[in-house]
Design goal:
By secondary structure, this protein is α+β, with helices and mostly antiparallel strands. The protein folds into 2 domains: about 1-60 and about 105-185 and about 280-355, FAD/NAD(P)-binding domain; about 70-100 and about 190-275 and about 365-395, D-Amino Acid Oxidase, Chain A, domain 2, CATH 3.30.9.10. The chain has 12 helices and 20 strands. Strands 5, 6, 12, 13, 14, 15, 16, 17 and 20 form a 9-stranded mixed sheet that branches. Strands 1, 2, 8, 9, 10, 11, 18 and 19 form an 8-stranded mixed sheet that branches. A 3-stranded antiparallel sheet has the order 3-7-4. α1 runs parallel beside α4. The structure holds flavin-adenine dinucleotide. Flavin-adenine dinucleotide binds near residues 48, 172, 194, 196 and 232.
Length: about 400
Amino acid sequence: MFDIVIVGGGIVGLSFANALAGSDFSVAVIERNELDVIGEKPDCRVSAINRSALKHFRQRGVFESSLVQRVCAFEKMFVWDQTGAGQIEFDSAELGVPELGVIVENNVLQHMLLESVRSADNITYLCPQEISEIDYQFSDDKISDDKKHLASRLTLVSGKIVSAKLLVGADGVNSKVRDVALIQRAKQSYQQQGLVCNVTTSEHHQNTAWQCFMPSGPLAFLPLYNGDSSIVWSLDETYAEQYMALDDEAFKIVLAEASEFKLGEILDVSQRFLFPLSHGHVSEYVKPGLALIGDAAHNIHPLAGQGANLGIADAFVLADVILAAKKANRQWAALHTLVKYQRQRRGANQLMEASMTGFKELFGRKNAALSEVRNAGLSLVDHIPALKYKIIQQALG
Ligand SMILES: Cc1cc2nc3c(=O)[nH]c(=O)nc-3n(C[C@H](O)[C@H](O)[C@H](O)COP(=O)(O)OP(=O)(O)OC[C@H]3O[C@@H](n4cnc5c(N)ncnc54)[C@H](O)[C@@H]3O)c2cc1C
């Protein structure tokens, strides 16, 4: 019997395990896929990690890994509207901080987190392991639920059985843990696809994250450690299909023109991938002896690169809540403890989800009057330091 079983060893599940490394809890992480070997060239799936998450990772030694050389700090962010003259620039120097965040390949961050998790005696990493059945017994009776819920029992395809006092679903957007706990999730498709790939440009990225809003969807160029940039282009479905069908030479031209040659010509482009874009939020983050974190609980539009950051914040808050309860000798897996995590995180996650949907709507509209307001707004904010500071503080976490 483990105190805690985490289903899912993605960025969020491993962040949670990392926060519990060295604690009195016995923890198991169950992950179905072995981590990809880190290639010579950067991988296409990258994340912008904000300062709040970075602070936790640095405090917990995650960035002491030799892989830190694959992490690229960005000092500036430049955002512009392709339909007008509106633009805004955020500079870490103006904020008195060394960087606005870092761009890191998802599998590199997972490897770094895994190094710290593997070196902890209290954590067992079960991978590759697929779950065949989860037996989660709970009562909706608010008075007696803590007493009635004893443990969850997970049967793995290998035949192994693991039990947990607290079952944590960090198993992504199609969470099985969420399903067995009968937690409802409201979801909506954006009718967009995220086209991702890496590019070599004729001009250096200048450690700047570039983001252009255009009628077909937002396009981001995120700086990579080797001078290349990773692009995330959120496209209406018809554009996504068209751009995937182009050969590399034609795609390079379309991309350079879309970015208004901010980084010059596109010299080289990697394989392109598409991800369907949707947003969703669960009705409850917790039940007795069960909690959902990361994409299992909520997912948002990637236009501001905040999805993983929200999940990492969930992981650290949940860890703080149960560590404090254990220290105070209270029922750390009980519903009345776990709701403290839900209370701290739900509002922030809902606000970010609503903001991303609002931004997508505001910048996706082709209306000329709206375009003028948008452009004027961007440039106005650029000239009001206090407002600019407020916006960037939100993004930095
Ligand atoms: C195009 C795109 C760009 C993005 N860019 C950014 C960005 O710049 N910054 C940012 O913060 N966010 C970004 N995001 C969002 C971010 O990628 C996600 O929010 C984040 O990866 C979610 O992490 P997670 O660990 O919760 O889920 P996942 O990454 O989905 O991990 C879930 C893990 O659980 C495992 N699993 C699932 N089911 C089982 C099972 N039954 N048994 C065992 N294991 C299981 C899976 O194999 C997986 O490893 C982007 C998203 C997209 C689509």
